[in-house]
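QA checklist item 7 of 12: single-chain prediction sanity check.
[x] sequence parsed
[x] length recorded as 153
[x] structure emitted
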Amino acid sequence: DFVQLNALAEKYGDKLVVLGVNCNQFGNQQYCKDFELLNSLKYVRPGDGFELKKNFHITATIDVNGDDEHALFTFLKRALPYPSDDNGGRGDDFIYKTQPNTMPLQWSPVRRSDITWNFEKFLIGKDGVPAKRYSPKFENKDLEADIDALLKK
């Protein structure tokens, strides 16, 4: 995911800002301290000296679901309550297939509009209006057509 997002950031340059939101609500997979994340990307996964492009930024760790969710995600989820590619259960069921049954959800209350797993994505126009939401299963490289269409507006 990081490699594909970096490729989009490189392709579109100043026409696109990629914002990665650090969150540890999904299986405790992001246990790095905020200052450790960039080194983890560079040396562990994806590794091989990986560095973010200048228009790809990572936030401090925040909650994206539950009572303590960041206001940005309250706004985004109200504007786009479910992924556009969630056809026939391909997106909202993702969390139940990937998170072990022995590990309870790490937020409350659970809402239909919740972010389901890492790398769920929002495309937002220059005007700040959320345009489209994508499930974690949607390949980042496949965002190009929607980015192109939004840039033409």
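[x] summary fact logged: Residues 2-12 form the longest helix (11 residues).
[ ] second reviewer sign-off
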